[in-house]
Design a protein that fits this description.
There is one protein chain. This protein is α/β, with parallel strands linked by helices. Among the domains are: 106 residues; 192 residues, Rossmann fold (3-Layer(aba) Sandwich). Helices cover 56% and strands 8% of the residues. The strands form three sheets. The protein has a six-stranded parallel sheet with strand order 1-3-4-7-2-8, with helices on both faces. Strands 9-11-10 form a three-stranded antiparallel sheet. The protein has a two-stranded antiparallel ribbon with strand order 5-6. A hairpin with a 2-residue loop joins strand 10 and strand 11. The longest helix has 25 residues. The protein is globular and about 75 Å long. The structure holds adenosine-5'-triphosphate and magnesium ion (MG). Adenosine-5'-triphosphate (ATP) binds next to helix 10 and helix 19.
Amino acid sequence: MSTSRRRKIEEEFIEAKNNWDLEKLYVDLASAKGKALTPVEKKFLRGLLCGFSPAEIASKVYKTRSSSTVRVYLSNGLYKYIEEMLSRQAPDFIKVKNWSRVTQLLEKAGYKKVWLQIESGTLNTTFSKTKAQEIANNKSTPMQDWGEAVDTSIFYGRKKELTQVEKWILQEKVRLVVLLGMGGIGKTTFSVRLAELLKDNFDFIVWRSLRFAASPEVIFEQILEVISPESFTKGQSISRSISQLVSCLRSTRSLIILDHVDSILYSNSNIEVQEYTEVLSAKTSAIANSNINVNNLNVPSIQYLPGYEAFGELIQRLGESQHQSCLLLTSREKPQEIAALEGNTLPVRSLKLTGLNQLQTKEILELKGFATVNLEESQQIMQRYAGNPLFIKLAATAIHELFAGKIDEFLQQETVVFGGIRSCLDEQFNRLSVVEKQIMYLLAINGDFDLKKLQKNLMLRVSQRLTLEAVELLQRRSLLETDESSFSLTPVLKEYLIEKLIEENLKFSRDEAGSLLFAHTIFEKQLKNHLKVSRLNTEL
Ligand SMILES: Nc1ncnc2c1ncn2[C@@H]1O[C@H](COP(=O)(O)OP(=O)(O)OP(=O)(O)O)[C@@H](O)[C@H]1O
Ligand SMILES: [Mg+2]
């Protein structure tokens, strides 16, 4: 093999070395195999460690959709060496059943570059205390606990935002930062990347996900176990834990990251979804006769789920009091306290993450195995999905699976929102109150609106105060695009809402006399035409 070809192979999937102890892995696997791994075996291993499936490796490396060669190569070689290597280290025989197990098994065996690994909710006190003490004794090593932090070896763009937040935290000593944005926009990934960037500036770093709504007791205990193991007593009261945390964050320089705070937030709407559907489906006269007292409508506020209020208290205290640490939150919705505490010159700030640009969209598509993505295609995908990296990835998978990898064919058809993209948007839409939903539908059909126009066009006659509160809430939920005083929606949200309107109308038509089905067809056609024109305008 020529030197340049060998070098090219060695560079493929090299990002794996950021998070994995590759050298040790190569040595241990060579010992299990009985001789050194070949460059191709090393390349496939790195590909798996970057999170790619055999199909994605095949598509990226060999530009082919068939993954059978890679699969056979892996099963007959690498998987066997991994099994042998792990079985030598543990008494049980470990079987690599499929590619997705490889990273888990190797991480468990300690080949991933993390300092401490404590599973949420299953804290092993002895282990973490001993380890904590050991690292704390070595003053030059910052103590870091990344919990279940995601791998960020593939990360595009966001330089401006990273520099901005870095400046807030290091130079302006901001003590509470909230990263906001729609589902899939990249908050979690950004938070991990930021922590990696800042890690040398802190004595302690703790990253925790609230995705599965771990209780405040568990999370506070885990943080204290890392930053002050000697002061923590098991079973102590939650208020004592909060006070201890605040005091520890004063005496040490720590970075605490709580991801997915929206999982412990909710907004209480005083009207049932079913009632709302009735309002939506009914004609204006029926609304007037409906038994919904619109004057009683309330726009809910964003609150903590019962049992999770202690998080709010901690956030409030860390935002208000003097300390040398930083609490970084990621959330789809802005918690109540932040709105009150934040300001451009205050030590509490929030940053709304927006979509990636065309170039970064192109990079994601290439990463997903599209060898030649032209500028126009990546531009259109970026626009349709408002640069949402999760949606772009999901669309890329669908293009491979349903359109034989042909981006132009995917772009020609009309459906933009499907599968995982729809579930992600459903999660956010289902949390809205009646008035918020109405505003969203209005914006989907009419494009931009200012407050006055919104108020005039709402089907439900609600007070100006309610409209104002609802718009403010939608902004806090990262669902509105704001341009000076007017509001609009991203194309993907627009498409989602129009689809929903069509479905809701069909439901209504089915319940009514047959003639209304005809009305539904017209309704659907009109909305779809409208969507086409609006899409064309955006693309132009
Ligand atoms: N800058 C980036 N470059 C490349 N990929 C990215 C980037 N940011 C995020 N991604 C990818 O997009 C997907 C969604 O990212 P992430 O989970 O961080 O979103 P999120 O905003 O935290 O979503 P949620 O609100 O659902 O928690 C992930 O697969 C991630 O790897
Ligand atoms: Mg997230």
